Amino acid sequence: MGPLTERQKAVLEFVVDYIRVHRFPPTVREIGRALGIRSTNGVSDHLKALERKGYLERRGMKSRALVPTRKALELREVESEPSPLSFEATEASSRGTLRIPVLGRVAAGAPILAQEFWETTIELDRSLLGKSADAVNFALHVSGDSMIGDGIHDGDLVLVRQQSTARPGEIVVARIDDEATVKRFYPEGERIRLQPSNPRLAPIYVSPDDGRDVQILGVVVGLFRQYARA
After folding, report:
1. From CA 82, how far away is CA 10, in angstroms rounded?
2. Where do the H-state alpha helices sit in the chain?
3. What is the pLDDT of residues 141-167, one digit of tens each?
4. Active-site annotation holder among 9, 143, 164, 183
5. Which of 9, 143, 146, 197 is catalytic?
6. Which residues pair with 68 in a beta bridge?
7. pLDDT given for residue 14 in this prediction
8. What is the sign of the dihedral through the CA atoms of 16, 21, 27 and 30?
9. Domain end: 31, 47, 78, which one?
10. Among this protein's residues, is 9 annotated catalytic?
11. According to the model, what pLDDT value does residue 80 have?
12. In a domain, 230, yes or no
């Protein structure tokens, strides 16, 4: 059957992550909207290829009938590492600290170019993170004031759980083409609204017709602010 293409991997990753969050499979339109695939036929072709290759199986004929096989779940676990945004926070030492990779700056305002590599790492005591400690995969610097209504300020570090889906209203790190931004996520039919919490700023709307590629990189689960700077 041959290896999976990059697009097939992205579709499979989205399906698996969506089910983990929502407990049911996504529709063809939801997959297309999330991955920037404008044609539903294009999404269907990728799903059929994943069926043929043994990564998805159909249970019934409903719109949410495709589910990942064990082969898909195993691949998703293995391939969570090679992705440039799949860095896992690791235990730094027996002291109970967590070493978290910082992947560059993200605009909370007008998006800036995303830097998909480690800028540095930080070490935080697990006790400061509480139950969120095991959910943090990476951190990102925030630039701008568009999320001040949620207490996220310029220079803060948002702590992020990597996933490709989100519930309406969650604060996400989203990538639009090659740029990334922190906003609240709201799906609205065929389009997505990325909403700032600063009332002076307008939301960002992304739809399949505008030709932009939008992807959720993760959900914000915590915040780190450094008051004293060297």
Report:
1. 13
2. 6-22, 28-35, 40-52, 70-78, 126-129
3. 888 999 999 999 998 889 988 888 888
4. 183
5. 146
6. 56
7. 84
8. negative
9. 78
10. no
11. 43
12. no
